[in-house]
Write a structure and sequence with these properties.
With 415 residues, the chain is α/β, with parallel strands linked by helices.
């Protein structure tokens, strides 16, 4: 092993999950990747709950501290997986939504929690890892924040794209804070919809990050249920792709009504009725059961996906109207997020997120934000190009917009 290597760690700091990787800055090679749940979940499942909690200085310090410990632990895990020595880690770069980047730095969040919802910094920030609460003194770079709810994670996704954008190209980074960008031919219009943790599997009855044992695929053929899990491990929870596929399959088989109501066992005339049960007093569909427990999707989980879908569709339609485009005219749809598997465009159509045209022009990028941070770490002149990209993004706020509220409610039901 050469001690001359200069390695860097990339972080995609999500509200629900954290993804991290280690790259060789000379060769551009990814040497290792890891992921975990964001330890700040104890202060709330979504961005607004975190901002409320972080308004108390002592809580903000605790939130920063637990995040720093987990990020530094991930860095150590990356080095161990790559067989690398501590001195080889030369720096880190962090992408997150504005709330996550502010909390990571221990900065007050009042400007994000109240109108006009502006971050305390918009350009990229070069600091020491000690400013993030780490024990190591390493160069750290936090990506630019174009707006109060549009952050470095969306920028990283756009920065990492191989192909230049075309007019009518739509980019979706689906997480707890679903960020959306549309290229109108001249610039990116961007917004963020508070989708809740359904897309990442977080805060659901059996939700978990996209880690081994997470149900990532669900198919129903006749009366038979087929599950796919990450790593082929025994099912112990469900991640984002599993949630979407489960709901799409239940809709297709008449077990969920368009209103989102999960039917009761006596309303279903197939053997699937055996899986419709009450769990802790809430209607649920049992996906898997063994000696160690069960994995299920309940009525509240389905409602959480409906709220996420309504917010996402409302945000998309606002951007399309600003660009003078229709959903049927989109040239390309590129999707990313910490789902655990490549999402089926058909499943997205079946739950009402995509229309037919979007299915035909869609593509999926695994770990899009993380890939963008990696590119930033290895590309010569990358920071200048990233800052220029950030300056060209026009943020469209949704908060308090009557049209958004109307579109959100219009898109709650399933097709």
């Amino acid at each position: 092993m050469s001690s001359a290597r200069r390695l860097a760690a990339a972080f995609d700091l999500g509200t629900t999950t954290i993804a991290a990787s280690l790259v060789d800055t000379a060769s551009g090679e990814r040497l290792a990747a890891v992921g975990c749940l964001n330890p700040q979940r104890r202060w709330g499942a979504d961005v607004l709950a975190r901002l409320d909690a972080a308004a108390v200085p002592e809580t903000l310090a605790a939130m920063q501290g637990c995040l720093a410990l987990e990020m530094e632990r991930l860095a150590e895990e990356l080095l161990a997986k790559a067989g690398a020595a501590d001195p080889e880690l030369a720096g880190i770069a962090v992408a997150g939504n504005p709330a996550m980047e502010h909390i990571a730095l221990g900065l007050p969040v009042a400007s994000l929690a109240h109108p006009p919802f502006r971050p305390l910094f918009s350009a990229g920030k070069s600091v020491s890892a000690r400013d993030l609460g780490w024990s190591r003194d390493l160069p750290a770079y936090l990506l630019p924040l174009p707006g109060g709810f549009v952050g470095g994670d969306l920028l990283a996704f756009l920065f990492g794209l191989i192909e230049p954008p075309r007019r009518g190209a739509l980019y979706l980074d689906l997480g707890t804070n679903a960020e959306i960008a549309l290229f109108d031919g001249e610039r990116f219009l961007a917004t963020s919809a508070a989708a809740g943790p359904a897309f990442e599997g977080g805060n659901l009855a059996c939700g978990m990050a996209a880690l081994p044992g997470a149900v990532s695929g669900v198919e129903i053929a006749g009366d038979r249920l087929r599950l796919t899990t990450i790593g082929g491990a025994p099912a112990r929870g469900i991640c984002g792709s599993g949630v979407l596929q489960a709901v799409a399959a239940l809709l297709a088989n008449g077990l969920i009504e368009a209103s989102g109501r999960l039917r009761a066992a006596h309303e279903v005339g197939s053997n699937l009725a055996n899986r419709l049960q009450q769990v802790n007093g809430v209607p649920a569909f049992v996906l898997h059961r063994d000696a160690s427990g069960s994995v299920y999707l309940n009525q509240e989980d389905i409602r959480a996906l409906q709220l996420a879908k309504g917010a996402l569709r409302g945000g998309m339609e606002i951007l399309l109207s600003r660009a003078g485009l229709a959903g049927e005219a989109l040239a390309e749809v590129v999707l990313t997020g910490s789902f655990g598997a490549v999402l089926s465009p058909e499943a997205l159509k079946n739950v009402g997120i995509f229309n037919e045209n979007m299915v035909s022009v869609s593509g999926f990028v695994r770990e899009g934000a993380l890939a963008g941070v990696e590119r930033l770490l290895v590309e010569k002149g990358g920071r200048d190009r990233l800052e220029a990209l950030a300056a060209g993004v026009r943020v469209i706020p949704l908060s308090g917009t009557p049209l958004f509220e109307k579109l959100f409610l219009a898109n709650i039901d399933f097709p």
